């Protein structure tokens, strides 16, 4: 997945990039919201040493998107199913209502799965495993045009984000 954005702030070795929300994003609100509901703010490593006002091309590999989706959706779903099955089995074994025990254990396992994901979030952020990376820097020149080795006007890039 490739997106274009503008660097709006530099924080030590990180850049805050404003990216136009694409249709693929939907309305999940997983990213920080910008000043405009169509924008999102991403903090990415400033590997290309961009400055405020520069445009950057960001890339996130499809494999990473799939991994993040699996962690976000499949892990809680499997936890729910496991809790229901275990609750049904344990409820029958100990003489409790199987449906009620399964429902409660399913919900409990789902809550624990979300808490586990939340606990691992700092590790994911630190490793930048699921963060986009800068692949190209498009600097502004003195005329206000963007230059990535080819002459293109600001308008041609601004249409992309």
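-> sequence recovered:
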């Amino acid at each position: 997945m490739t997106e274009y954005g503008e660097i709006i702030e530099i924080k030590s070795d990180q850049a805050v990039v404003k990216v136009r929300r694409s249709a693929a994003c939907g309305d999940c609100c997983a990213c920080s919201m910008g000043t405009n509901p169509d924008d999102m703010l991403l903090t990415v490593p400033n590997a290309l040493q961009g400055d405020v006002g520069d445009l950057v091309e960001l890339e996130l590999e499809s494999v990473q998107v799939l991994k993040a989706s699996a962690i976000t959706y499949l892990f809680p779903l499997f936890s729910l199913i496991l809790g229901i099955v275990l609750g049904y089995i344990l409820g029958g074994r100990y003489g409790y209502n199987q449906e009620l025990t399964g429902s409660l254990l399913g919900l409990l396992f789902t809550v624990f799965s979300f808490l586990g994901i939340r606990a691992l979030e700092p590790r994911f952020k630190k490793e930048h495993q699921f963060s986009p990376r800068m692949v190209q820097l498009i600097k502004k020149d003195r005329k206000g045009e963007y230059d990535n080795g080819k002459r293109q006007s600001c308008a041609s890039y601004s249409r992309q984000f």
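Residues 12 and 58 are 19 Å apart (CA to CA).
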